[in-house]
Structures are given as structure tokens and as C-alpha cells.
């Protein structure tokens, strides 16, 4: 009796001491402009996942906790790429995130139910590893906790203590599983932790039998993670084996192609009508379209885009000019601001410049570290792969002009009231780096021209020719995708 | 023949001249950090609403055009307050917005179909006028255009020129209406334009027979609107007849109430269990809960909030600390950042400080103009009314402590490692303005304590007492709302 009272006193003191440290460290963490801590809480039902979160809500400043719980996807989450909902809700720099039922939940659930094969599961774990490496590279410390109860303990909790269950918030994400089902979940979890325990983010198994010890342990882990982020700012991971392009793609273009005005008018009418028809195709309602326009300054991106948007219903269209990130965007991983702009089913998004800025202007101008642009190729490929696998038709255009043509257009712009605003000091500066851009462009084409999202290099010396080419390629791709 | 060719040449020249002016003015507009132009395009089917938008997409820099089209609400739009979807999509400062099927569409549709009475329609028009006045006060120039076709013209277009329809994007938002139905729409539109043509935003009727003249006219109107915004920065509208509070609400509070520890523990258990039960109520799935906590510094908001959030499922909970607006938020009307955080069905949002900052800290510290905080009371009431009418249970707490108690707590905070971070220079500064805050508080209570969202002033000299009071009020309000 006396012992138990001492115990309780000691526990209270321990809890209070931890709380002080956590709260102070959370406060320090908030000053970071880069980097955050994301904690995945997984594990058996009845192991107290919700109680763990409640402890943190009791300990920490609630305003900088980002708790998200993910069940099986519903509504729009179901129709967007698998990782979209996780991307959207990442914690901003300086804050803490807690995910209940993270990206592991769905694959594990499906494996346990026999809905996917081990091979498919393993492939999904690989995708997850790539995603987690990206988070790590972006300065997010990922803590993966598996709350562990033995079978007996689970049984006891489930049978004996209904009042406890009532007091807690039910987190029965596994539904009403039988003992045999649980065995399957456990097997799956074992495989999962084996496949996805990395140096940076190992799975940490926390015994959940004693709620006090459980919360103290997790509190310590989160504390250490925050301290690590505060004391060791994220260091760019060097990219091994990155190879510059072996070909000069631009040099192979035929810039001499031209389209006379009459023929242009005729073709424009033809392809625009074709595009209007295709956009009415009933199958488009279940697909989406994302167009990426890149090109040298004054290559005619805006004009080519307008010839396309003229044919599109403004209700389903967004044109995004990629500008400097907002302060909310700056506190998020690089690709976040593009993830938030991807098209929903039946919609069209046009990027007038895009996430490729990372490997073009940011690389050339030195706005990001070498390792950042070098790893961007792979990250972009994975981003695009998720989009195309989910039914987005992704078409990427590079409008190419020669250095001489650009100079001619700059001079014309200076003289034209309509176009003057388009020309800035920066454009003249960029021009001086022409060879660097050519190099960056060739690397981009080499590393990101994939089968499902190849680059289309369009000679744009003649604007009419370029406009018809983009329209034609778009129509043909839509036709193939829809018919 | 020769004449028609000259005409066509002249039209082309006119179009080009307008385009130059529009593009230059759009470029100037972009430099504004405050204010934008929002154009509502309404009117008959076949009057060319989509073509008008296409003209602007052809003329202007697409990246700063925000086109939205609203049909009858579906999905989440249907479950959120009526104006939510319009709030969310307002154009940022310096940009242009085009709304097709704006907030007028649904009431007009319903009136024409006989689904709402004239009285109800008129009341909705009043709500709209309030909303438009707010937009105007926030520096958004609202241009309301009604595209007009006579019956004959409509008939002709519909019957005779299917190729034209095919070339355009169908915008048949009115569905397949008969002539009699159209007559009803026209009657409703007449009433609508009468009721909602204001000095700041009159309805402008534009003949839509000739597409060239139609687009030229609208282009001119938009040009003038942009110029007006650029040349005359928004001037705060003085608020007439604003009256300070007639009572001292704080003085009436009994600060002596106390709760001994034993009783507190017992009551805490009781009310927290009650709250957990209530949150499981099946009817809550169709309602939502928004809690607003305000109070002097160190009044114990965080502690009271934690006693509540402990009982809530983290999956349906968000706690927002109201911080300085982000740069995206700064380019939007004041209430935008709160509209984007309102709870969806079945969810709980807690504001640890809120939009009331406008009439508290911003007023006292002079962060906004007198007219801004004076008009905020009415805007907040309308915001809250829309929430409560839509089924959100909104509960507002002011935690009140005396000046002496605050000083005591500040000193305790200085000494405590867990609480030290909570105390800033600003807190000491605020303290010096105690009488100003009392005045602001009384005005706030007087002007925003409405029947559906009254203020609860909680004496918080004793934290235990305050925590139990907030829990009890919350439980009782939930009980009344759900049972």
C-alpha cells in the first residue's frame, strides 16, 4: 500500500519532469525555419494510440501539434494519388505532427485481409521508403512507433476493462478482428518493420502494457527527436552516382520548321475543334490532365497555353504561374506546393513553369544546394509516377528557341506596350547563362523523360509551328488515353 | 463586302488596343498589396458567358486570373455554410477574379423553380448585400455583369447555329428550360437586380447580341474597375452610429468562486465522462462544434482547453492558435483565414484566440483603423450566424481574471521552467493597457453576444472553478443541441 503510493508519487514526478522538458523543447523547436518532427503512432488496437496522443495534448502546446488520423481513404482522398492526403497534411517547419493510421495502415490492412500479394505489399513498402527518404532529406525527422501488446494483454484489456475503453477514445482502426486475423496483422507488421526500418527512421517497438511507462518512453523518444532537429540542422545528403546527360537534346532539334499563316489558321481551327471534342469525352470525367510548360524566356509559353485554354471550360481549368513560394509554402517540403495544385478528376491544371524550376533556374542560379537539385530528378519522377498511375494524363513541353531568336524577341518586347511588362532585368541576366541552362535542360530531359511522362521538345522559333505542335501532341495523347 | 472587311479590320484594331490597355493595367494591379477586382458574369444561357471568359484568357496574363464556376452545391459545399465556397475562392490582392454562377445563381434558380418564396429570396438578397459590402470594405471592387439577350435572339442562337454552340463551351447552367421557365428567370433576375444594385456595385446590363461589342464593353468595364482600384486605394468606410457598451460586464462577475481540489477531481471526472458520451451521440455526426477561447493573458485558456481536448477524438479535432497572418492570408479579406478553418460536419475546432482579435488586441494596439474594428462586430455576427444556421454549435468563452491575479501569475510564470516560454515582453506591455482592454471587452460582449452565440464570461481567478464551468457549459449546450 505504502509502496504503491510512493510509486504513484514517483510516477507523477517523472511525468512532470518530462513534461517540462518537452514543453521547453517544443518552444525551441518553433524557432526553426526548416525542419520538423513527424511521429507515426501505429500498433495493436487497445494498445492506447489515442491515449498517447492525449498525453501529448496534455503536455504540449496544442497550437503547434498537428494530429491527423487516416482510415481507409474516402471521398476525394480515394480518387487522388495515394500519398496526396499525407503530403497535404505534413507539419510545417518548427512544429510537431502525429499521424495515427499513417501510410502503413492501408497496405498492412490489405495484406492482412489477403487483398494484396506479398509482392505488391513489398513494392508498396519500397514506395514508402522513397517517400520517407524524401521527408528525411527535407529535414523532417520521422519517428515510427509500434505500440506492442502481447495477445494475452490485448485479450485482457478487451475483456476485462470496459470502463477503461469507455474512458478512452475508441481507435479500433482494425475493426472487429478475430484472433486469427490478428495473427495475420502481426505477421504483416513483422514484415513491414523488417522492410522499412532504416537508419534514419527505424521502427521503435514500445511495450504498451503499462500506460505510464508507454507514455514516458514515447515522450522521451519525441524529446530526443526534437533535440536532434534543433541541435543538428538537416545536412543535405550527397547524391551518389549522379550522371550528367550524355546527349545534347537541343542540338538535335530542327528550328527551321515554319507554318504559313493560312495553313496555321486552318490547322488551329482543326486542332482546337478536336480538343473541344476530346474534352467532352465521357471518359475524361474519370481522368485528369496536367500540362507542364517550360522553356527559355520569350519562347512563347503563354501564347501556346492560351491556344489551349481557349478550348477548355473555365470551370475545370486552373493555370498556375509558378512564383516564389509563400511563407506557408516555404515551411513545407519543396514539392508540397505542387502537390496542393494537382488536378482532381475531370479537371485540367496548366503549369506555366513548374516544379522543374528546381533543376533549371534554382540549379543554375544556385538557389538550392547541389544535392538538392540532384535528388530532385528522382523525387520528380516519383511524383509524376504517382500522378500518372492514378489516371492523370501528364504532358510536358519544352519550347525551344535559339539564342539569336531570344535576343530578337527581347528587343521586340522592349518596344511593345503589351509585352513590355514581360521583360525584366532578370531575363537579361538569365540570358548570360545560356550554356548553363542548356546543360541543365539536357540533364532534365535525360533524367525525367519517362515512358508515362516524356518530354516533348518543341522547336518554337516559329510560334505558329510551336502552337500547332503542342495542340497536336495534346490531342493525340488525349485520344490515345481516352479511346 | 468591302465594308464588312473594313469593319472586321476596325474591330480587330479595337480589340488589340483594348488588350494592350488591359494587359498593362493588369500588370500595374499586381503591385497592390491590398485590393482586387472580382467580376460576376451572369445572364441568360447562350449569351456567351464562357466566351467572355475566353476573351479574358486570351487577353490577359492567365496566371493571375482566378476563374471559378459555381453550380448548385455538391459534396462538402452542400454541407458547409452557403457562402463558404465563395469565401474560400476570393481573388488575392492584386489579382482578378471571375465568377460564373456566383452567389446569385442558387437563389435565382430556386425562385424560378418556385422552391423558395419571394420573401425568402428577398432575405437572401439582404444577406448578399451584407457580404458584398464586406467585400467592398475589404478593398475588393465587385463588378456585376448581366449578359442580356432578347428572347428572339436566344431562340435564334439556340435553333439556328448549332456549330456555334459546338465551338463554344456549353455553359447551360439553367438546364433545359422552357420559354415559360425563362420568363420566370427573367422576372427573378429583374427583382434581383432591383434589390442588389448598389452605388458601389450596380448591376451592369450588357447586350450580348454582338460578341465583339459584348467583349469590348466588358473589357472596358473591367479596365475601369482595375484603374479605379489602382488609382484610388480603398478608403475605410466610416461606421455611423456605432455605440460603445452601456454596461461593465466584467464588474458584475463574482471572482470569489473557488473549487476545492477533491471536489474538482470529482467534478472533472463527471463532466469529462459526460462530454465523452455526448461526443459519441449519433446526431453529432451531422453537427459540428466550434469553441472560441478568449481572455486576458495568463487567464488559463490553455489549461481549460486541454481539459476539453482530453475528451475528444484527435481524429476530428483541430486546435488553432491565432497567430500573425501568413502572406497568403494577408492578401485576403480579414475573415478569410477563419473561414478556411471552420469545422466540417462531425468535427471540432477550438480557437485559442480568434477573429475577435480584431476588436481586442488589434483595436487596442491600433493595428487596424477605427472603422475596421467598428465594422468588425457586424461582420463577425454575420459570420457566426452563417455557422450556427448551418448547424455548427458555437460556444464562446471569455476567461476573466483580475489585474492582481494576472500579476501574480506572471511572476509565477517567470519562475517556472514549464511556463516561462509563455511570458513575453508583449504580455507586460499589454498589462499597461488593462483599462483599454476592459473597454474593448465590454464593447465586444455588448455587440457580439447573440442569441445563438452568446458570450460566456467565466471568472477564472480559480483555475479549477473555470475549468469545470467551461466543461459544464459545453456539456449542457451539447446536450440541448443534440437531444
Automatic annotation (TrEMBL), chains A, B:
One of its GO terms (molecular function) is polyphosphate:AMP phosphotransferase activity. It comes from the Bacteria. Pfam families: PPK2 (PF03976). InterPro entries: P-loop_NTPase, PolyP_AMP_Tfrase, PPK2-related. Residues 7-228, 259-480 form the Polyphosphate kinase-2-related domain. GO terms for biological process: polyphosphate metabolic process. PANTHER family: POLYPHOSPHATE:AMP PHOSPHOTRANSFERASE, POLYPHOSPHATE:AMP PHOSPHOTRANSFERASE-RELATED. This is Polyphosphate:AMP phosphotransferase.
Amino acid at each position: 500500500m505504502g509502496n504503491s503510493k510512493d510509486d504513484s508519487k514517483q510516477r507523477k514526478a517523472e511525468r512532470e519532469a518530462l513534461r517540462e522538458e518537452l514543453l521547453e523543447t517544443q518552444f525551441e523547436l518553433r524557432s526553426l525555419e526548416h525542419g520538423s518532427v513527424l511521429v507515426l503512432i501505429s500498433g495493436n488496437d487497445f494498445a492506447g494510440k489515442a491515449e498517447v496522443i492525449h498525453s501529448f495534448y496534455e503536455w504540449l502546446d496544442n497550437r503547434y501539434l498537428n494530429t491527423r488520423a487516416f482510415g481507409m481513404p474516402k471521398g476525394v482522398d480515394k480518387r487522388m494519388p495515394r500519398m496526396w492526403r499525407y503530403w497535404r497534411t505534413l507539419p510545417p517547419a518548427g512544429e510537431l505532427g502525429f499521424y495515427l493510421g499513417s501510410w502503413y495502415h492501408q497496405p498492412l490492412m490489405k495484406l492482412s485481409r489477403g487483398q494484396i500479394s506479398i509482392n505488391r505489399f513489398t513494392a508498396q513498402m519500397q514506395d514508402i521508403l522513397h517517400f520517407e527518404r524524401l521527408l528525411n532529406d527535407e529535414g523532417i525527422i520521422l519517428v515510427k512507433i509500434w505500440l506492442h501488446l502481447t495477445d494475452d494483454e490485448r485479450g485482457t484489456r478487451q475483456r476485462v476493462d470496459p470502463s477503461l475503453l469507455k474512458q478512452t477514445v475508441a481507435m479500433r482502426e482494425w475493426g472487429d478482428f478475430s484472433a486469427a486475423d490478428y495473427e495475420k496483422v502481426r505477421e504483416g507488421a513483422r514484415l513491414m518493420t523488417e522492410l522499412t526500418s532504416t537508419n534514419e527512421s527505424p521502427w521503435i517497438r514500445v511495450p504498451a502494457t503499462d500506460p505510464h511507462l508507454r507514455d514516458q518512453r514515447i515522450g522521451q523518444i519525441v524529446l530526443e527527436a526534437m533535440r536532434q532537429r534543433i541541435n543538428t540542422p538537416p545536412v543535405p545528403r550527397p547524391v551518389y552516382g549522379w550522371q550528367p546527360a550524355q546527349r545534347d537534346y537541343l542540338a538535335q532539334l530542327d528550328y527551321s520548321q515554319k507554318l504559313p499563316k493560312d495553313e496555321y489558321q486552318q490547322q488551329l481551327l482543326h486542332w482546337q475543334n478536336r480538343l473541344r471534342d476530346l474534352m467532352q469525352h465521357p471518359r475524361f470525367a474519370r481522368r485528369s490532365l496536367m500540362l507542364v510548360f517550360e522553356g527559355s524566356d520569350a519562347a512563347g509559353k503563354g501564347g501556346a497555353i492560351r491556344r489551349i485554354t481557349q478550348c477548355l471550360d473555365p470551370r475545370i481549368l486552373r493555370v498556375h504561374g509558378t512564383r516564389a513560394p509563400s511563407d506557408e509554402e516555404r515551411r513545407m517540403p519543396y514539392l508540397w506546393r505542387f502537390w496542393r495544385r494537382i488536378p482532381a478528376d475531370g479537371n485540367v491544371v496548366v503549369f506555366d513553369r513548374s516544379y522543374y524550376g528546381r533543376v533549371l533556374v534554382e540549379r543554375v542560379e544556385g538557389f538550392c544546394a547541389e544535392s538538392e537539385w540532384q535528388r530532385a530528378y528522382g523525387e520528380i519522377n516519383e511524383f509524376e509516377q504517382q500522378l500518372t498511375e492514378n489516371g492523370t494524363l501528364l504532358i510536358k513541353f519544352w519550347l525551344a528557341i535559339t539564342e539569336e531568336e531570344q535576343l530578337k524577341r527581347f528587343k521586340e518586347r522592349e518596344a511593345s506596350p503589351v509585352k513590355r511588362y514581360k521583360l525584366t532585368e532578370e531575363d537579361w541576366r538569365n540570358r548570360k547563362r545560356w550554356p548553363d541552362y542548356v546543360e541543365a535542360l539536357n540533364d532534365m530531359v535525360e533524367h525525367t523523360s519517362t515512358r508515362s511522362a516524356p518530354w516533348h521538345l518543341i522547336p518554337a522559333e516559329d510560334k505558329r509551328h510551336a502552337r500547332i505542335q503542342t495542340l497536336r501532341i495534346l490531342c493525340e495523347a488525349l485520344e490515345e488515353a481516352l479511346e
